[in-house]
Amino acid sequence: MNLQNMAPNAKRSLLITAVFGAAAACIYLFAVEPSESDLAQAKRDLEEVRTRHEMMMRNLSGADKVKERLENLNAGLDEFRAAILQPSLESYAMGAKRLLDPLAAGAGLSETEYEELPIVALPVPKRLPVQLFARRPIRLVCRGSYQAAVSFLLRVEKEFPLVALEAMSVTAQQDPLAQRVEFVFEWPVKGGRTKK
Amino acid sequence: MSAKAYHLNLLKASERVSSSPVRLRVMLPVLAMFAVAGAVVWWGSLLGRVLMAKSSIQTLQSEIDTRKAAYADVMEKMNLANELESELEQLEYYRGGCRSYGGVFTALAEVMPLKIQLTRLEIPPPPPQSLVPPGVLPGRPYTPLWGPTGNVESVSLVLAGRTPKETPIVSLMESLESDTFTNFISIVKDPRRSDQSPKVRSIRQDTSRRGEGSRMLAFEIEYRLKDRRFAK
């Protein structure tokens, strides 16, 4: 096709087509395309903000439930907090002595001797807590009759339901009223921390 | 007169094959203008949607900002609740492992035959705990586990004593199989099983004392008590 041989009308038509075609291409390339990517980005941002907002609103609407849950958990923990063995003079054995000596004396056990044994870890829940708890065994060696030992054990179990008997032995001596009695009681204690 | 003679030939030969009666030199500029108009409308619609999205973002963001403090407070409480829940769960494991033995020993005194002289009654301590991760070779450095992999600890009761004859031992063993002790003592009589209970560790002539000892039988029986299960 030769432009010089074309009719003026056809030439004008071609020129107009070329100009508008170029304009359409420019609008597409420099306006529509960037706007498309702007829109995609804005949609992503909106989705992200909306998700955050929804989560926030959901959590805020559950604030009362969280408060109630905290109260229930604290109520459940109070029993354990009261049972956790606190060291006395930096010693758990002293802490145990302070609690158990009156019961031992009341049951008729004498010559009590307390010893702190190494801590024993408890199984960990699936969601690892920051504050771990453990079992703290305390060995108590004393003298007394079998009846006194059992009476003491019953008192401990009644007074401190969360103190567990880990080991025990009653070894016969010449005097049946002064057998060698050994208990290993364990208390819940605060263990290590999983995070600093 | 044939039809061919009156046919008006209004189209050029090149236009005759076109599907459109409108000439190409008109169609092309019109289509190009439509393309421009379409592109402008498209762009406008995109701009509008972008503006709407940005305005929604701004609205939501400002709402988020105004509730930030309240949200932080709730999140802190939720984290605390999660922490307390985990702590409570671990302490519940501890409670699950608590066993009372006072009742057993009281009942034991009641069923103990008079002819038996107990020399030792023992609940042995559990074996030392291992916090070595599974699969670690001996001597290799490792990071200890936070807690044991298992949650069951077996407990046994050893009764050692002396008696002039076998019958009181049999009587004692029968008593320990009675309903009174069902909740405390496991009875597994299959000798092939590792958790067999009771297990007579020894029964022999007592040689510890001269004279009297030769007429006495020394025995040692091990019972398996209910496991300590550190679970909820």
Can I get a quick summary?
Chain A has helices at residues 8-61, 63-83, 92-107, 146-159; strands spanning 110-116, 120-121, 131-144, 164-171, 179-193. Chain A is α+β, with helices and mostly antiparallel strands. In chain A, strands 1, 2, 3, 4 and 5 form a 5-stranded antiparallel beta sheet that branches.
Q: Describe it for me?
A:
The complex is a heterodimer of chains A (196) and B (232). Chain A has 196 residues and is α+β, with helices and mostly antiparallel strands. Chain A folds into two domains: 61 residues; 108 residues, Alpha-Beta Plaits. In chain A, 54% of the residues lie in helices and 23% in strands. In chain A, a hairpin with a 7-residue loop joins strand 4 and strand 5. In chain A, helix 3 crosses helix 4. Chain B folds into two domains: 55 residues; 111 residues, General secretion pathway protein M, EpsM (Gyrase A, domain 2, 2-Layer Sandwich). The longest helix of chain B has 43 residues. Classes of the chains: A alpha+beta (196), B alpha+beta (232). Chains A and B meet through helix 1, helix 2, strand 2, strand 3 and helix 4 of A and helix 2, helix 3, helix 4 and strand 1 of B. Strand 4 of chain A pairs antiparallel with strand 1 of chain B, so a sheet runs across the interface.
* Multimeric organization: heterodimer
Write down the CATH topology of the largest domain in chain B.
Gyrase A, domain 2
Percent of residues of chain B in beta strands?
15-25%
Helix content range of the residues of chain B, please? 40-55%
| Euclidean distance between termini CA atoms of chain B | 110 Å
Tally of discrete structural domains of chain A: 2
Question: Major sheet of chain B, described briefly?
Answer: 5 strands, antiparallel
Supply the number of helical segments of chain B. 5
Low-confidence stretches of chain B: none
Broad shape of chain B: elongated
Helix content of chain A: 40-55%
From the N-terminal CA to the C-terminal CA of chain A, the straight-line distance is 83 Å
